[in-house]
Structures are given as C-alpha cells and as structure tokens.
Backbone:
C-alpha cells in the first residue's frame, strides 16, 4: 500500500489549527512573537502638520516673489510649539519635527534666507507647501497597522510603539517537550567511552528549531527503550501542560522501537504513521486532547529534516501564523539527477552562484541519514518530488534554505 504523501502529512500536522490563547507582552519583548489581533494606530503620525526641515514657517502666498521680506514673530521647536497664529507678512523660526504654527503652510529652509534682526528675507524661491509633513501622512488614527497572524520583526516593534502601543496581544508560546529514546544514548561529556554508546545530538537541533519558531522548550532527557519508561514520559508531558511532545528514536519496526506501542497504550490517536519521505519515513503524528505528539525517527538527519518540515510549521500554526509550511526558494540543479523513487526526497546540498544571479544546488555525494558532518556542511535541502523524472544539470528545482 502506498504510504501517505508529505503534503498530506503536513496538512494533518499543521493544517487548520486553532491558535493558542493570547497574552499581552511589552513591545520591547515582542520580537518573533505572532500577533493575535489586528493592531490599529492609537494616534495619527505625525499628529499635526510638522516641519521636515530647519528654517522659517511661512504662508505660501507671502513668498511668491524672491526676495520676500517677513517679520519673525516667534519660534516653533520639536515639543515646544508656537502658541499664537501667524498673519500675512509674518513668519516664525521653525525646526525639524516642530508643529507648523497656525496660519502657515510652507517651510523655507534656512539656507535660502537672510536674517536681519526680526526680519527674514528669502534668497531663493520655495514652492508652496514644501518641507511640510502633513498630519497622518505616515498613519492615521484607527488605521490598520499590523495584521493578526503576522510575526513581529524589529521594524514592526518600531511601528507598534509609534502607534502608541505599550503592550501588544500575541499568541502564547507553544510549550514543546523533547524526549529521546535509546539505550545507547549518553549526553555529551557524560559517556564512558564504550563503543556501544552514541552521544545525543538530536535534541540540540530540535530545541534550536523549536525556539526559532517561537516555542518554549523543555528537555525531558533520555528515556531507555522500555515501554513503561516511554509511557511515563508521555504522561509527564500530558500532565505538564505540554502542547507538543517531540520524541526521537524508536519509531521504526525493530523489537526495541517502542514509540508507537507506547503512544497507543497512552491513547494517543495516530493520524500519521510512516510517510513517503526520505529522510523521515517512520514519522508519527498523533493527538490526545490538547496534546500533539510528533514521533520523529532517531537518525539525526531524519529527526532534523522532520523538525524543519513538520515541527516548525506546527509551532507557527499554533501561534496563528499565516501560511504555516516550510518555505522553498527556486534554484537550478548543479548536476544531473537520476529519477527519484516513491519517496519525496530532501537532499543535503551545497549552493553556489550560477553566474546569472541565481543559485545552483548540488547534492552532497553521500546522503545517509546518520551523517551529521554532511548535514552541517550543507547549505540547503534540495527538494525532489516523489517519482520525479531524471533531470539534467541546469533544470529548475526548489531548495529549503537553512535559516541559521
Ligand atoms: N527493517 C526496517 N528497518 C528500518 C526501517 C524500515 O523501514 N525497516 N526504517 C529505517 C529508517 S528510514 C529509519 S529513519 C530508522 C529510524 O529508526 P528509529 O526511529 O527507530 O531510530 P533508532 O533506531 O532509535 O535510532 C536510529 C539511529 O539514530 C541514533 N539516534 C537515536 N536517537 C538519537 C539521538 N537523540 N541523538 C543522536 N543519535 C540518535 C541511534 O543511535 C541509531 O544509530 O530506522 C531504519 N530501520
Ligand atoms: O527515513 Mo530514514 O530517515 O531514510 O533514514
């Protein structure tokens, strides 16, 4: 029987997802968070007509001739507006960012004036309404500024602050718990040096991916290949209010691969179990109540690729982010490729310049899913569709860039 496609699995994992509850955070702490509601401007910017330059605020009708001579009756500076009104034949000194005095509509830059006591003479023409920023020209009070589902950038933080928001509503960070199964596993620096030991690597990549997508991560550590121990870890996640439990290892079909039986025993309904993906065929996804479980293969490259393809989009979807999927960019093949088999393939590849402003993607020569050195040396994942025909160098293709 044909295994489920990557697209179908992704739609089950990160398809229509009810976003987590909102919480309010100070704008200064909002980088990378996802807006839970549309953010409207609480005030107009600029709040009044303001000068864009240092010079003199005048009435345009008074400076049609050059030279024109006007009486200086006061000053308007940023934060210290001129209190009165400016009549015909009058002007005020004005500085950048100051409110235009009543009666004026144009600013003559000081370089185009001469000053003698309280008289100002224009020395070059200035078009009517020049050097003035109209009230609300950046944004008007009540106007939509940022949309729900948008991930806040540094620039958005500036906009939100300028729109006079001290705190903004964002989706709660998804809580992700990581568990790694395997009798062979030891933490870095904690092994005895025995050949049978393997040093844990998966949780480091998965935690970084999850945090970059906006999650709070807790590491439940290494669990032995023991049904009771794995079931206890699943219950710990359920009781601890975890949103996504991510396991790595024990996903295949060997006698010691206990993740599926443990999930079934804990009544986690498996919606995905084995898909047409390389690396990552043994992927599992299930739910029980509010808990979602992603069971990733233990092979390090498989766990990381599945983290990029499924975990990061799920974390983003739970925050209400729009278009929660992995993102591809166009490139061209750097070498001839044979036809693909029935598994969609995400190959570790290097990128180079194609000499025409584009990218050339060349798969690294060995693609075994255990090879961390190859994963670290790659620039991108080259996407090969299931059953893709043979393709020659230069053929357009898609790649996923590593984001770190
Ligand atoms: N008869 C079959 N055997 C296998 C199949 C299959 O279809 N039939 N699928 C293969 C594929 S594809 C994959 S991928 C692996 C996945 O196996 P598991 O998820 O059960 O992974 P483990 O056996 O637990 O570990 C595999 C490998 O990865 C190392 N590992 C595990 N966890 C970590 C970790 N946290 N950090 C670093 N390295 C880890 C582990 O020591 C093993 O070397 O199954 C194939 N077999
Ligand atoms: O799917 Mo496995 O991840 O090919 O090695």
Residues:
């Amino acid at each position: 029987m044909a295994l489920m496609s990557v697209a179908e699995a992704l739609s089950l994992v990160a398809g229509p997802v009810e976003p987590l509850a909102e919480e309010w955070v100070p704008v200064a702490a909002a980088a990378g968070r996802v807006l839970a509601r549309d953010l409207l401007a609480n005030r107009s910017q600029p709040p009044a007509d303001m000068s864009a330059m240092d010079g003199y605020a005048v009435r345009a009708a008074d400076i049609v001739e050059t030279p024109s001579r006007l009486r200086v009756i006061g000053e308007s500076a940023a934060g210290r507006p001129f209190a009165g009104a400016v009549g015909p034949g009058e002007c005020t000194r004005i500085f950048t960012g100051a409110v235009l005095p009543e009666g004026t509509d144009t600013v003559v830059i000081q370089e185009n004036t001469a000053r003698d006591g309280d008289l100002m003479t224009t020395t070059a023409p200035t078009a009517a309404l020049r050097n003035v920023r109209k009230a609300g020209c950046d944004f008007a009070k009540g106007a939509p500024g940022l949309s729900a589902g948008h991930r806040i950038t540094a620039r958005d933080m500036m906009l939100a602050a300028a729109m006079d928001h001290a705190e903004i509503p964002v989706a709660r960070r998804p809580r992700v718990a990581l568990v790694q199964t395997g009798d062979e596993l030891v933490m870095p620096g904690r092994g005895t040096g025995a050949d049978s030991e393997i040093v844990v690597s998966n949780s480091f990549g998965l935690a970084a991916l999850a945090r970059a997508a906006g999650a709070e991560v807790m590491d439940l550590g290494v669990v032995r290949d023991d049904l009771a121990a794995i079931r206890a870890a699943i219950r710990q996640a359920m009781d601890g209010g975890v949103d996504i439990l991510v396991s790595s290892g024990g996903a295949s079909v060997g006698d010691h691969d206990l993740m599926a039986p443990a999930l079934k025993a804990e009544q986690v309904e498996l919606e995905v179990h084995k898909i047409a993906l390389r690396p990552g065929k043994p992927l599992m996804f299930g739910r029980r109540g509010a808990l979602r479980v992603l069971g990733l293969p233990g092979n390090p490259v498989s766990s990381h690729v599945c983290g990029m393809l499924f975990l990061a989009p799920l974390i983003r979807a739970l925050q209400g982010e729009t278009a929660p999927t992995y993102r591809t960019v166009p490139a061209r093949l750097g070498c001839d490729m044979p036809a693909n088999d029935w598994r969609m393939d995400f190959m570790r590849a290097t990128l180079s310049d194609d000499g025409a402003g584009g990218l050339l993607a060349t798969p690294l020569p060995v693609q075994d899913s255990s090879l961390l050195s190859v994963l670290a040396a790659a620039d991108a994942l080259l996407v090969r569709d299931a059953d893709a025909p043979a393709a020659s160098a230069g053929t357009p293709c898609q790649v996923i860039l590593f984001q770190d």
